[in-house]
Design goal:
- This protein has 241 residues and is of the alpha/beta class.
- 37% of the residues lie in helices and 21% in strands.
- It has helices at residues 2-17, 26-40, 66-72, 85-94, 135-148, 167-170, 174-183, 193-196, 202-211, and strands at 56-60, 77-82, 103-107, 120-125, 149-160, 214-221, 230-237.
- It has a 7-stranded mixed β-sheet, with helices on both faces.
- Helix 2 (26-40) packs across helix 3.
- The two termini are 33 Å apart.
Length: 241
């Protein structure tokens, strides 16, 4: 995962974070993060036990900090974590400490989070779980979310619920998919499992979260993608329900 996302970040980090709307305008890119934060994050802040300005947040799969920046305007501290060291490096360049003193970035390994137990009041993740290459990786990240959350904390996690490639297509080796995409002039960097990712059926969601130590409090529809293809899961540590 790290190797693939480092390669994408070196080519064009902003594009591979926002392939649908990236037009080269960095300010518009971060403005879109703020716009979506108002749409997606602000409606659930009332679920936190304390005002957001007194809470610590974690942005899981932060990329170049699109949502980390929006979270930093709302929370006391924000930690952005990404599997790609190159994404983290560029996120740091975009967010110097003197301008964003409550925001920092760290690279993880894609299955564990570089944060201590119970250190976050809120964990947010957008368009990240949809790229995880297997349910095992998804489960590992959910366990980490459960571990780093405080007992009265909450997580808002974006999950793909509808596969974009059929079973037969998924059986084709990734190397052949890359070669075929190159042959027709398409981008081979979106062909491997760390970009295609894994869908989780809605029937499986609650069980998957429970197995990781999280209780599903609410499923919220995703207004930013095709209806039914993704969902936001509002969850909390099971002991706090």
């Amino acid at each position: 995962m790290r190797e693939s996302w480092d390669e994408r970040a070196r080519k064009d980090a902003f594009y591979y974070v926002e392939t649908a709307q990236w037009d080269g305008d960095v300010e518009a890119f971060y403005a879109l993060g703020e716009e979506r934060a108002r749409m997606l994050i602000d409606p659930v802040l009332g679920r936190l036990p304390r005002p957001a300005g007194t809470c610590d947040a974690l942005d899981l799969g932060c990329g170049v900090g699109r949502f980390s920046r929006a979270l930093a305007a709302r929370f006391k501290t924000v930690l952005g974590v990404d599997v790609s060291e190159e994404m983290v490096r560029q996120a740091g360049e975009q967010h110097p400490q003197e301008a964003f003193p409550n925001l920092r970035f760290e690279a993880g390994d894609g299955v564990s989070v570089p944060a201590v137990d119970g250190s976050s009041d809120f964990v947010f993740s957008y368009e990240v779980f949809q790229h995880m290459p297997s349910e095992d990786v998804i489960q590992a990240n959910l366990r980490e979310v459960s571990r780093v959350l405080r007992r009265d904390g909450a997580a808002l996690l974006h999950v793909k619920t509808e596969a974009e490639r059929g079973t037969a297509a998924r059986l084709v080796p990734d190397a052949l998919v890359r070669l075929a995409k190159r042959a027709v002039g398409r981008d081979p960097l979106v062909s491997d499992p760390s970009f295609r990712g894994t869908a989780v059926s809605r029937d499986r969601l609650e069980g998957l979260f429970n197995e990781a130590g999280l209780s599903v409090r609410e499923l919220r529809e995703d207004p930013t993608h095709e209806p039914g293809s993704r969902v936001f899961v509002l969850a909390s540590p099971r002991s706090s329900r």
